[in-house]
Amino acid sequence: MLARKPLIGTVAANVLAHGTGAINVDGCRVGDEGGTRGSDYAKTGLFGVGGKCRIEQLGAGRWPANVILDEVAGAVLDEQTGAVPGQQGVVRGDEPSDATDGTITGRRGRVASAAPRGDSGGASRFFYCPKASRSEREAGLDHLPIRSGGELTDREDGSDGLKSPRAGAGRGGGRRNHHPTVKPVELMRYLIRLITPPGGLVLDPFAGSGTTGIAAKLEGFRFVGCEMEPEYVTLARARIEAA
Hints:
Layout: H1 11-18, E1 36-39, E2 54-57, H2 71-81, E3 84-85, E4 120-121, H3 134-138, H4 149-153, H5 160-163, H6 185-195, E5 201-204, H7 211-219, E6 222-225, H8 230-242
Parallel strand pairs: 5-6
Antiparallel strand pairs: 1-2, 3-4
């Protein structure tokens, strides 16, 4: 969940005053197809004369999603929605608007003409669905001992309870990274890139096994992490150094 202090005036004014507050939309678009951007605002009126605004087709990916799913939630969403069609027809660019009276909402912008994409698939494709692999979790930890599934889940090795899916990750075998909620590196890179200003400092007060630190390093940002459990500090340091 993303939260921020109230802005000082506009986003631009807040960035000029404090260096923060902007969101890096173009650096975090989802996929490489679709996407629009408003441009060519008229110079008078709240939204210009009659609210006229040209909508530019980018072909650079969709706007960053307001909700980000993991692969489990994505599968559930796809099961609920089934196949969802994309743009199937030709967009001419002169389709009529339903807001043409020059009121506060003004005229809706026209989109540029576009051929049909003909894409389809589950609704999860409109969201960002990263996944942390076992190799990613364990990278840089070869020097550490492997902990068994029983040790990781506080259950007896070989028991029926350990075989249950509810026992969690690692139940079928041991692993070196025993943190219970390892985040995907790609997800943290995405979030850091979305909100961190150029040359910025990333602070993670709950560093866990260091995924945010890895992401900050890969994205070229400085990083400070705090973690109260010494065993997780060991994991975090090794994983960040390996990155």
